[in-house]
Each structure stands twice: as C-alpha cells, then as structure tokens.
Design brief:
- The two termini are 22 Å apart.
- The chain has helices spanning 22-34, 45-65, 79-90, 105-115, 134-140, 163-172, 259-275, 277-295, 325-336, 348-354, 372-387; strands spanning 9-10, 73-76, 96-100, 120-124, 145-151, 176-180, 199-203, 215-219, 301-303, 315-320, 338-339, 341-343, 361-365.
- 37% of the residues lie in helices and 15% in strands.
- By secondary structure, the protein is an alpha/beta fold.
- Helix 1 packs antiparallel against helix 7 (259-275), helix 2 (45-65) packs parallel to helix 7 (259-275) and helix 9 crosses helix 11 (372-387).
- The chain has a 7-stranded mixed β-sheet, sandwiched between helices. The protein has a 4-stranded antiparallel β-sheet with strand order 9-10-13-12, with helices on one face.
- The chain has 11 helices and 13 strands.
Length: 390
C-alpha cells in the first residue's frame, strides 16, 4: 500500500478537476500555435478565428444548460466573479435577499459586503444533511425581498438542493433566482428554462473539465438592465463612444478575455456532451457508493450528508474520532499519495450547519476519471488510519 513507486491518487476534484481530458490540452495548444490573436479587437482572420472560438464556447454552454441565446452568457474567470457581478451588480440598499446556511463564501462574502451597504440578509438554516426546506424560504419572503441566491449543491457534503421547486416559488413571488452551479455544472443536469433560473453562475475548472481562469454567468433576457457591471473598459465594440456598451455580453466583458482558456473550456464541454451527462453522473455515483459502503463500518468514522447518491454530487466529507482532519489529510498524502482536502472548504456556515466547525472535515471528491481501484485503495488507507487512532 505504501512505497515510492505508488501512483498518485487525486480526490480533490471539487476544488479543481484533474486530470483533464486530453482534448482540453490539445485544443489550448492548437489555439496558441495557430491563432493566438485577440477576439473582437481586429478585423484580420486570426482575430475573427479567436472570436469564433469564444462564440463556439458560448454555444456549447447554451446546449448544456438549455439557454436559447448564447449571447446571454457572460464569460468570466470563475464562478466567484460571476456571483460578484450578480450580487454586487443587482442588489441595492433597502433590498431584502434570501440565502441558505450551506453557501460557499463566493456567495456569502458578496452578500455580507452588500449587507454593510444596507441590504437585509436572511440566511435560512438547513438540516443536518445540508438540505433546505422550501417552505422555510417561502416564510422568509417579505414585501422588499428581491432575490434568492443559493447553491445548487454543497461543496462540503455534495447535497443537491431542491432548486426547481425554489425557482418556481421565486418566480411566483416575482423574485430573481440566482443559482451557484460551481459544483454541478458538468456532472448534474441543469436546465435554466425548466427550473427556472434567472442567473446561473458556473466555473469551468471543475466538472466541465476546463482550465483554471474560466467560468461564466447566464443572465436572463432583460435582466441586464438591472445589473451593473463590476468594471468597464475596452470591449472591441462601440469603440467610438466612451460609455460602456449596454448590450449582452459586452456590457460585462471589458478587457482582453482568456481566449486560450475558453478554447480549453469548449473542449471540456465537448467531452461532457460526448460522454453524456447520464454516463458521467452514473459512474461518479458508483464511486461514491463503493466509498460509502467501504467506510460505513470503520471504527470512529463519521461521514456527513445524505446516505444515498440520488441527490448527491460525488463529494463525501468525513471525520475520524480523535483525529484532526488536517492530520488525516496529511497522512493520506504523505503515506498513501492520496490527495484530498481538509478544513472548512471556504464554507464556514456549512460546517456550522453540520456541526463540524471550526476544524472542518476531510473531503473526498471524485471524478469521471477516477477508478474503482483508486476508491478501494482510499478505503484501505482509511482502514489503516482508523485502526491506530487514539
């Protein structure tokens, strides 16, 4: 089980997926070798090719999320930037907004920042499995409530939220519904029309298998009139005026984009569409099942979230009694070359909800590229560690 020749096992895909499909690396290298230009800033053929690459990525994202117009997608460097556009750009003093106790700091910190600017915030407590009860959200709605911001799935324990029911409720009450899909885009079905979702924030470097520095924000038609951009500047469009363009997506895309990264993102999305969402979800669920079955009777092990895989992303958090999560993660890495993430996972409110604050948990997050053999080795490693705990 141990030894210098042991292969590395990577179970930190909820932070960043690795490895990427070979097509992602190939697409980025091809772009740098054969295009390399700035999209929309020139009329020559390489600039046109670069612009086409960005638009192609929007089209693939539209196909994945059932978005009717690719130009409704703003390309960002990650989900955090997308959520900052949605939250800081939309809310104003006097607004009342609702969120949940399972949010990542990418939602919580912008909301807390707006709270200091006069926005009223209601944080709805979730249960021990990380689920929010839609009726509690309904009871929190006030006359001045303008929006609901919430995660699609917890990055700590993988619990998938009832976003369809909450989205319908939001629309019934005339509220804007924003979903943080950082943990679900690419591994869990998302349909902005059926749910319905007004604002969808996603990142490219997780289950979409794109490189870091990629992501986006879907903005429902007409809503851009109510959302101010975070920053303004050159867009390559309307260069004759000194005011920011007011049309999508240029309103939110000032500055040179990460075109090589977006090209890699498109290749990642192509892989997801080719492999099939159902196939990806099924394989990842099977890995979670094997892992949960293997650890459920280990002495001193507590795992969090739902027992099944139907409403869970491929994320499992656990603790070993009497052991610091950081020490467990360090031993897994040093002794077994198994890479996981320990601590609070940038979601302190979620850990307070499930009772693991302030030390957090040891998080295993699986990917389509992991194998059953790797999961079995992780169970064996935890078995060894659990038997010698104090």
């Amino acid at each position: 089980m141990t030894g210098k020749n042991m292969k590395t096992i990577y179970f930190d895909n909820a932070a960043t997926s690795w490895p990427k499909p070979p097509e992602v690396n190939a697409a980025m290298q091809k772009y740098m070798r054969t295009i390399g230009a700035n999209p929309g800033r020139s009329g020559h053929r390489l600039s046109v090719e670069a612009a086409r690459a960005v638009y192609n990525a929007r089209e693939k994202l539209s196909q994945l999320f059932n978005i009717s117009d690719p130009l409704r997608i703003v390309m960002t460097k990650n989900a955090t930037e997308a959520l900052n556009i949605a939250i800081l750009g939309f809310l104003k003093a006097g607004d009342h907004v609702i969120t949940t106790s399972m949010e990542h700091n990418s939602v919580m910190r912008p909301l807390r920042a707006m709270e200091r600017r006069g926005v009223k915030l209601a944080v709805i407590s979730c249960d021990q499995e990380g689920l929010v009860e839609p009726s509690q959200i309904k009871r929190a709605i006030k006359k001045n409530t303008t929006a609901i911001f919430m995660t699609h799935a917890s990055n700590v324990i993988g619990t998938v939220m009832p976003v369809a029911e909450i989205g319908r409720m939001a629309h019934k009450h005339g509220l804007i519904f924003c979903v943080d899909a950082a943990q679900t885009a690419g591994c869990y079905p998302i349909d902005v029309q059926a749910t319905p979702i007004d604002l969808l924030a996603f990142t490219g470097h997780k289950s979409l298998f794109g490189p870091p520095g990629t992501g986006g924000l879907y903005i429902r038609k007409g809503l851009e009139q109510r959302i101010e951009p975070l920053y303004v500047g050159g867009t390559g469009s309307r260069s004759e005026v000194e005011e920011q363009p007011d049309f999508m997506p240029d309103r939110y895309e000032a500055g040179t984009p990460n075109t090589v990264g977006i090209t890699g993102l498109q290749a990642g999305i192509d892989f997801v569409l080719s492999a099939g969402m159902d196939q990806i979800k099924s394989k990842e669920a099977s890995l979670v099942e094997i892992f949960l079955e293997g650890i459920q009777d280990l002495p001193g092990v507590t795992f969090y979230g739902q027992a099944g895989t139907h409403k869970r992303t491929p994320v499992v958090s656990l603790n070993l009694a009497g052991m610091d999560p950081a020490a467990v993660a360090l031993e897994l890495d040093d002794r077994f070359k198994i890479m996981v993430r320990s601590g609070l996972h940038c979601a302190p409110a979620a850990h307070k909800t499930i009772g693991t604050y302030p030390k957090g948990t040891v998080r295993f997050s699986f990917s389509y590229f992991n194998t059953q053999a790797q999961v079995t080795k992780a169970v064996e490693a935890l078995t060894i560690i659990s038997k010698r705990r104090k």
